[in-house]
User: Fold this.
Amino acid sequence: MKTSLSALLPGQSGTVTNVGGAAGIRHRLLEMGLTVGTAVQLIRTAPFGGPIELELRGYRLSMRRTEAEHILVEGR
Amino acid sequence: MSPEAVAATSTRTIALVGNPNSGKSTIFNHLTRLNASVGNYQGVTVEQRTGRIAGSDIQITDLPGIYSLSAVSPDEVIARSVILGLQPDAEKPDAVLVVLDAASLERNLYLATQILELGLPVLVALNMVDVAMRREREVDIDALSERLGVPVVATNARNGDGIEALRAALIAFDGADQAGNAKRPWPLPEKIEAEIQTVSRAFEETGIVDKDAADGAALVWLTDYLTGAPTARVACEDFLAPLPSKVGAAVKAAAQRVFDAFEEPASVIIEARYAWISQQAQGLVRSLTKEKPRRTVTDRVDSVLTHRLWGLGVLSLVLAAVFYSIFALADPLMGLIESAQGALAGWVTGLMPEGTLQSLVVDGIINGVGSVLIFLPQICILFLFLSILEDSGYMARAAFMMDRLMGRVGLHGRSFIPLLSSFACAIPGIMATRTIENPRDRLTTILIAPLMSCSARLPVYIIVIGAVFGSNALLKAGILFGMYALGTIAALVFGLLFKKTLLRGPRPAFLMELPPYRKPKISNCLLAMWERSRLFVTEAGTTIFVACIVIWALSYFPQFDQQDMTPAQAAAFEAIPASDADARANFLNAQQQDYSLLGRMGHAIEPAIAPLGFDWRLGTGILSSFAAREVFVGTMGITFSLGEVDETSDALRDQLATAKWPDGRPLLTPLVGISLMVFYVFACQCISTLAVVRRETGTWRWPIFLFVYMTVTAYLASLAIYQIGRAAGWA
Assistant:
């Protein structure tokens, strides 16, 4: 089941299948290790629809929902 | 030391590189024993910290924390050009010390492999081994050393474990047997390999980079160019600028061929590197337990601290505590500085004969030094707290929680704390914007921070509200709150405006690592506090000092002579009983202020400020406030022949309440009071702020812009309030 990263609920995991978005942001996402095939888990979301917190490659990364919408994951 | 002398003593230079939050700066502090010099790289706001490794003659440079060598932020551009020896104001390092965070090894290896490919000898400090252990993971140090082909020393910078071993390893390090490291061990598609060779040869033949670095530099350059992001493209063009145009064109043609062959060539390169890293890491990191990892301390703490209810509650409490400390701790210290200044001034006054020199020393120099030092308690305390919050990992959580709110006005979550700090004083607030990665966001925050009503405006609000709004405590509180609200709303509106116009650009990503919570290291925090304070005194302090001398001269010259009194002045003077020497002195001081250049300027601007409801006396107060806002109260005291007073003075309040225009109309009506306070909300009457903005932005352009936009807004807002109010019949 493919969904966007922003649609995951806290505690859910997935595998990245596509990283989209504006060129500069995509470049940075990839460099931070969010490459195709990477396992990610959504840890929590900030209050009032704020950023989300992810775990990947052993560390925690936060990003805005608008950025997460362009990242596709396959549920596990 | 001249370059020859450096060569003669064979001083070695080591660059320290690592991801943000890798503990890199703590390692730097250990190695240099807290003894570093701080400056800025030419023309950018990236900080340059250098020091000597204790017990050796090795110079070590702490480069900014970065995730890769791509040219996304100024930090990365600087780090890359230092390592390649292209930075004009930094020596090319002989070796690189790479700090790796053992707990997130894969992401850290991304940067490390890029650096290895630049051909310099590398030594690795594998830091935070303890954090990795707590997560039941162990890194095989020998295997890591073998796979990277470099020495690896395990450290725990927090408690100093492994630092001595690292120091010894650095001193003994000669970089031998690393000749083959620049060769990339992971493959890329043939078409990309071929073009890397084209670019690499161009770099090598033009001598822009060393032979060993050419392949690695070509790959970094190509990756940047291929992302297609506008900022990266600009950086790529800048890099090619020194090359002959024919070579530059050939390099770009090579990049274009890769572009044509792949749909997303930059992704192909980045993913190939990560694929290799993942493969290596699998054999390196051993899980010590078969079970699913337990919830970490950070997770348990975060379930409260980033909770929608408790999290915001805790954030409010933390900030309230910080502000309370500023008032509870900084206020007495500021009082102490003021009394010390007063005592010194009194002592010098007694020592020196009366005259211009005495006045210059007492009212100019001593006052100028006092005006610089008075900011130190607030800067020290705020920075101590901010570094504790940063060092513990809490600052990233505050930004995480506040990003939504700040995002609405086009800002980053990291802008929240600097803006909030500006309620105490814009100076530490502006200095705290360094944690905002994106230059546009940082500049926007700097430009709007002085709109937050700082503590220097409070005395002005208090005396004016006291003079015109009688005894209705609720009304007075409401008006005071209104002034704070007005400044805050204006800051947000201007922030949005600047982001939409002047500082428009591609929206930066909000990509922020949330590091695990750690016990803050007090020596790090004290050092940060010390460095900030020192930079403020040495760089902004001189501007503030000079401005104080100028203001002194404006109010001292030309001298008013008692002989020159008009008959009316003489009559008024004689009416004061000769026994009341203080009253006579206060009267003469008032005449001096009127007669001085400052007073004349007050008179001169009266036609311009009369439409705002202000007379020349308020004009003089406004002009003197450009040194610092709270000076308004003192100037008004002198103008009304009261001598030195503060905002609690009943006499000044009564004088202001009953002051009249020459035609007998009352001067400070409630409408004029509002107009005056609104002027203070908006106007950039603070030379110290301008000096700090100059220091933080590296140019006079931004402080001038800041001054103009704020002061013009102040004038227009006061004009509108007074004129509309009068038309509505409130005068």
Residues 1-9 of chain B have pLDDT under 50 and may be disordered. The longest helix of chain B spans residues 310-351. Residues 541-727 of chain B form one domain. The CA atoms of residues 593 and 692 of chain B lie 29 Å apart.
